[in-house]
Amino acid sequence: MPTLANLRLPTRRYALGAGITAEALKYFKYWIAAALVLAFAFPFAVSQWNDITISAWYYAANGGKWFTAFVGGGFLFVLVPNMVATGLTRRELAVSMGIFGVLWSLAIGAIAFAGLLAERAYYGAMGWSHGIDANDAIAPIGSAAETAAFGAHYPLVYLVYFTAGALIGVASYRWEGAGWLLLVPVLPVVFSLDNALYDTEPVGPGWAGFLGGAIGDWGRGLIVALLLVTVAGLAAAAYRILIDIPLRAKKA
Question: Which residues cross the membrane (predicted)?
């Protein structure tokens, strides 16, 4: 990734956001490859003594949501002092992280989408049932078109998790020892919307997704709109905290 000194001042925030994305994908490429291999190899191994009825890739994609939240929070927590110390303003860092979040979510979401379609073809060739654990019952994902529709929202869902992680990360830096408490209001919103969108058990603590059942019958269009509003709200909160954040002196 080019250093800040080699970036043109008016556009460096955008180049930096794209550069962080490229470096992050390069750094985690073996993690992503391992998830792909395990998700496709594990069902084959299990099929030797048991019927396959549940999508393994669905669980890998859900793990990617947590992973994306940790990337958003961890990168921001580490980059705040380092980037500002090298001359990047807090507003530039906020824009860079916003671009990083969008590009990362699109990239990981595209992988999740393609993996789900590839798994459907794989399961079909092997004669397995392609379903998910939906509220204590195995529900088939459906036809190729239905599978595509199921996976089409992955980029947006990953972006929600990224912005939630970024907010927790910057709050944890801003209010050391107490910032992580923002998890309490953030988790129920994110998990409930995730639960409602896919009509499944939440990918985190069951109590945190309790609202999902109540809003699950609102319609996918409205839930997608709520996801977009949530992304905007989380991003705005993270931005406000970041641009006013003081830098802590290093401890001896």
Answer: 27-46, 66-85, 97-118, 156-173, 180-198, 218-242
User: Whats the size of the chain, residue-wise?
Assistant: 252
d(CA 44, CA 49): 10
Question: Does 75 fall in a domain?
Answer: yes
Q: Specify whether the CB–CB gap between 50 and 42 falls below 8 A.
A: no
Q: Is residue 252 part of a domain?
A: no
| 116 within some domain | yes
**Tens digit of pLDDT per residue, the chain (252 long)?**
445 545 555 677 788 889 999 999 999 999 999 999 999 999 999 988 888 888 999 989 999 999 999 999 999 888 888 887 777 888 888 999 999 999 999 999 999 999 999 999 999 999 998 888 776 677 788 888 989 998 999 999 999 999 999 999 999 988 887 888 888 889 888 888 888 887 665 555 665 555 655 565 667 788 899 999 999 999 999 999 998 887 665 444
Total domains in the fold of the chain: 1
| Domain with 139 in it | 13-242
